[in-house]
Amino acid sequence: MKALYIALCLILIFIIICFSILSTPPVETFAELGYADDDDDYIYPTVYNNFITPHEANYILSQAEPKFADSETIGGGVDTTTRKSKTAWLDKNDPTIKKIIERVCAINNYSSENAEHLQVVKYGPGGFYNPHHDSTGDDNPESNEFLKSGGHRIATMLIYLNDEFEGGATRFVNLAKDVKPPKYGSILFYPLDKNNNRCHPKALHAGLPLKSGQKCIANVWIRQGPFTNTCD
Predict the structure, then answer these.
(1) Number of domains present in the structure of the chain
(2) What's in the keyword line of the UniProt record (predicted)?
């Protein structure tokens, strides 16, 4: 009886270990910890396959749908010559959203307090986002106001919620690299050059025009310090 009990325990342990391995999102390449450096050690964008589950993707889209409004630029205001899309914000304290944010933070041991609320973006045919940085290095009132709520953005996790569309890849302009993860996959990159606290030129990226279908993504952004804004 004791031998049978031990055998069953070993089988259970084996099943748990296998499930843990299989449920870990596959990674195309691994990035080092920390910020990006403006030299040959630049940490290139990293693609994670199956970073979120189908349930999580559907939940994000269902919560975002009634909240979508014309996308604004980082300085505020709608400019359809710069970007053409719809944006919604989901509270990071929502249990499902919180799990996704904590998953991002665990990669580089960031505090989830430094995470912004989840941004969800929807592109229709012809939708795009011209080359831009995810943080700001300008010295102007808009930039200074942006930095008050936690400092610079130091990490971006861009999650593809669907793949039923043509076009719409993420282009890293100064790396001459187009990235388009499969559905539920994501791209991790680092917008800031830690040497001068400015936007890293190699992190300049664009959302290429959508040829057909509808593209939906979500952005998890990590700041230098605790993020203080409410989710409006």
Answers:
(1) 1
(2) Dioxygenase, Iron, Metal-binding, Oxidoreductase
- Those residues of the chain that have pLDDT short of 70 are 1-42, 74-75, 138-139, 232
Q: 52 lies in which domain range?
A: 26-223
**Given this model, what pLDDT does residue 1 score?**
59
pTM for this predicted structure: 0.81
* H helical segments located in the chain: 2-23, 54-64, 95-108, 141-147
Cβ atoms < 10 Å from Cβ of 165 = 19
- Residue 187 tokens read as 């791209």
The pLDDT of residue 38: 43
H/E element, 24: none
Tell me how far apart the alpha carbons of residues 158 and 144 are, in angstroms, rounded to a whole number: 24
